[in-house]
């Protein structure tokens, strides 16, 4: 009977500390988004309607580039996503890592499956801080230029942007 009570106390304390960390951690179970900018992309499709199609045509389409950080309790997934008028572009980089929040500093060490993913990724050289309900990514890029990216909580994005980014499918 003593062991049963002791087991119950240990399990209850573990669960309460897990709940405490989830409640007091503003990053856990949240998605943060940074809009990088836009570019024009040459898209080939068939027919006059890219969704139906008959013959191959080429058209320049505006493309918006987003950096996305999706935090779970233990892991963070970093995604580079390009969105065109016709949906999400095929080329997308996903990196995953454990993460830890110390005061305002977020420690993330991405270890991609293939080395080139981190080299071509915009996340490769960034360090992260959590300040005023935003995540700030900063560092030097591949041409030694200082960069600062501000990631806002996805819940603060307008409905159309959230839908276009397909954040529910992450």
Q: Your description of this structure?
A:
The structure is a single chain. This protein is α+β, with helices and mostly antiparallel strands and about 170 residues long. The protein has a single domain (about 25-170), classed as Porin (Beta Barrel). Helix content is about 20%, strand content about 45%. The protein has three helices and nine strands. It has helices at about 1-25, 115-120, 160-165; strands at about 30-45, 55-70, 75-85, 85-90, 95-100, 105-110, 125-130, 135-140, 145-155. An eight-stranded antiparallel barrel has the order 1-2-3-5-6-7-8-9. It is globular. Residues about 15-20 have low confidence and may be disordered.
Total number of β-strand segments?
9
Q: In the residues, how many domains can be counted?
A: 1
* Cα-atom radius of gyration: 21 Å
Low-confidence stretches: 13-22
Give the biggest sheet.
Answer: 8 strands, antiparallel, barrel
CATH first level: which class?
Answer: Mainly Beta
CATH topology: Porin
> What is the CATH architecture descriptor?
Beta Barrel
* Strands in their spatial order, largest beta sheet: 1-2-3-5-6-7-8-9
| H/I helix tally | 3
